[in-house]
Write a structure and sequence with these properties.
The complex is a heterodimer of chains A (141) and B (425). Chain A has 141 residues and is an alpha/beta fold. Chain A has helices at 2-17, 47-58, 68-72, 84-96, 123-136, and strands spanning 35-41, 44-46, 60-66, 99-104, 114-116. Chain B is α+β, with helices and mostly antiparallel strands. The radius of gyration of chain B is 21 Å and the shape is globular. Classes of the chains: A alpha/beta (141), B alpha+beta (425). The A-B interface holds A 1-2, 4-5, 7-9, 11, 15, 20, 23-30, 41-42, 45-46, 48-49, 67, 69, 75-76, 78-79, 82, 86, 89-90, 93, 96-97, 99, 119-120 and B 11, 13-14, 16, 38, 40-44, 46-47, 49, 59, 62, 65-66, 105, 109, 113-114, 123-126, 136, 140, 143-144, 147, 156-159, 249, 252, 403, 415-419.
Chain lengths: 141, 425
């Protein structure tokens, strides 16, 4: 969400510099292969998500976790800390929809190269790192 | 013509969050339509228990990023009702501005970035060429005006920090007020262009339903009574007598019926039920567009959203021009047990937060009713009606038409996800 808000003032610059290959919030036709950088948000709660992030990891050179859920697991991982009776209360939902026993932050499931923490993520940190990666991949001097 | 058809769309695009769609057609008869909201439950209803009332609004605002201000505002209202806290007139005005900023940004995101590519026959805004690129520039300016309104009034556009129980921690500085007024004025004509665009679009899907919305005297999304198309009026605290929860084995979102039947909430419901309360300037400049309402065409939900943007601009300008904001002391109150219900209109429809506190101000029970969950049954029924009419088209075209219907509702499966998908099986 913050990334889309950042486009307000940067779209014209980034449009000429960046090929947004996989961005389902804004595009229907997406391609996940051979990415330079993947920015991934969200914690890993079910097995489908685990499979997906592993696929992303295998298709990108750098993977950056953005936002609190991806970087620290919270607040998506609040069920990890429920007491016994509350866990029993929600168990049927976890079983029905293939949830993992625990919600994990990204780095517990895949190798993460970098992080931008915060809820919402710190946009200044993101912009600094974004420019750094543009330089690293030779997009800007 | 497809006699038999199985669709399984995984990850619908250009919506907020994750949802899949399954369709089964046999002998040209639709046997099944399942909109499967696959966004993972994060169990806020359970996680909020035992929390101090003070932390609840910020905590539950994490239910959703894009409408976080709606959740925070609704939660504040629920706690204020429980603890008998009466916010000042200035606090109410600031809340209206905060909600207007959110509504403006959120509707603009949906209309320009999710829906507009369908109108231009393009996949995404990234595909707009120089001929149409002025729309993209306008999109960012309109959305940016909403962002800046939220930032000045509420501290941030996403997970705002100034709004508190009973008050605001900051008041907007005078120099920023003038900037906001100028910025809102500068985008007003762009909003009128946006309204014209969605007025001119020819997509149509009509099906009679019951519309439900919080009817507010100044169309501010915050205060009033719940009305429906049948003329029923409900007090906020009685909401649970009219809503019934319906569970589904295939969707992680809870769904609801109203008086036992499907219904619709959102901008179309608000315009159908309360358009006479729109700002005077909005009613004047959008008069020819408003004649379309009441409407059962689901694609007019997007026209209604565009008109709401104009209202947010006009009423915000009026409030900012007429109000001299001053430092205020927070209201005093005692902590005691009780029950409070907050009801507001979020971008996608009526949002309910109910909270029960013990005598120490800790949550014993909470209930949240989310707009998209209320529209879920109607979305499926609309698609059941549409599919037989388009069975002569290719699979790809049918998928696209179904996605357009889903997008017309502007569903929010969650704050932090990026797709709806259709899978053919």
């Amino acid at each position: 969400m913050v990334f889309i808000e950042l486009l307000n003032e940067r779209y014209s610059r980034w449009k000429d510099l960046v090929d947004f290959r996989y961005f389902r919030t804004l595009k229907s036709n997406n391609d996940m292969t051979d990415l330079d950088i993947a920015f991934v948000e969200g914690a890993i709660s079910n097995t489908n998500e685990e499979t997906l992030v592993k696929k992303i990891r295998n298709n990108c050179k750098k993977l950056v976790a953005i936002g609190s859920c991806a970087c620290s697991g919270s607040p998506a991982n609040q069920r990890n800390y429920f007491d016994k009776s509350t866990k029993e209360e929600i168990q049927f939902i976890l079983d029905r929809f293939g949830h993992r026993e625990k919600v994990s932050l990204l780095s517990e499931v895949i190798e993460v190269d970098d992080t931008v923490n915060g809820c919402p993520m710190d946009e200044n940190v993101f912009l600094t790192k974004f420019d750094r990666y543009l330089r690293e991949f030779g997009v800007i001097a | 013509m497809h006699d038999n058809l199985d669709i399984n769309i995984e990850q619908i695009s250009k919506t907020e969050g994750h949802a899949d769609l399954e369709v089964k057609v046999r002998n040209r008869r639709v046997e099944d339509v399942k909109l499967k909201i696959s966004e993972n439950k994060r169990f806020y209803t359970q996680a909020v228990r035992k929390r101090s009332y003070l932390s609840v609004p910020q905590f539950v605002s994490r239910i959703c990023g894009t409408c976080s201000i709606a959740h925070m505002t609704c939660s504040n209202e629920a706690i204020e009702k429980c603890l008998h806290i009466v916010p000042s007139k200035q606090t109410i005005l600031l809340r209206k501005l905060a909600v207007y900023g959110m509504m403006l940004r959120d509707h603009a995101l949906h209309l320009y970035f999710f829906c507009m590519p369908d109108l231009f026959g393009k996949d995404s805004v990234f595909d707009f060429d120089r001929t149409d690129e002025h729309w993209i520039k306008q999109a960012f300016l309109v959305k940016g005006a909403g962002n800046n309104l939220s930032k000045v009034i509420a501290g941030r556009a996403v997970h705002a920090t100034y709004e508190r129980i009973g008050c605001f921690s900051h008041i907007p500085p005078k120099e920023k007020i003038h900037e906001l007024i100028n910025e809102l004025r500068s985008v007003r004509n762009y909003v009128l262009d946006l309204i014209q665009m969605f007025f001119d679009q020819t997509f149509k899907l009509e099906r009679t339903t019951n519309f439900v919305a919080l009817v507010t005297g100044d169309f501010s999304f915050l205060e009033g009574e719940i009305h429906d198309s049948q003329g029923t009026t409900i007090k906020e605290e009685d909401y649970w007598n009219f809503l019934n929860l319906v569970t589904s084995p295939y969707s992680q979102a809870t769904r609801f019926v109203y008086l036992g039947k499907e219904y619709m909430v959102g901008a179309l419901a608000r315009l159908n039920l309360n358009r006479t309360a729109l700002h005077m300037e909005t009613r004047k400049d959008a008069a020819k567009f408003l004649n379309i309402f009441p409407s059962f065409n689901i694609f007019h939900n997007n026209l209604a959203q565009a008109i709401e943007i104009l209202h947010c601009v006009d009423h915000s300008i009026q409030i900012l021009e007429e109000t001299e904001f001053k430092e205020e002391s927070p209201p005093k109150y005692d902590i005691h047990g009780g029950r409070g219900v907050g009801v507001i209109e979020a971008p996608r429809g009526t949002l309910y937060h109910m909270v029960e506190l013990d005598n120490h101000g800790r949550v014993t029970h909470a209930n949240f009713v989310i707009p998209t969950a209320q529209n879920q049954i109607k979305m499926e029924e609309d698609m059941k009606m549409l599919i037989p009419q388009i069975l002569d088209r290719s699979k790809h075209e049918i998928e696209h038409e179904l996605e357009k219907v889903v997008r017309a509702y502007d569903p929010c499966m969650s704050c932090a996800s990026h797709f709806l998908r259709v899978k053919w099986i």
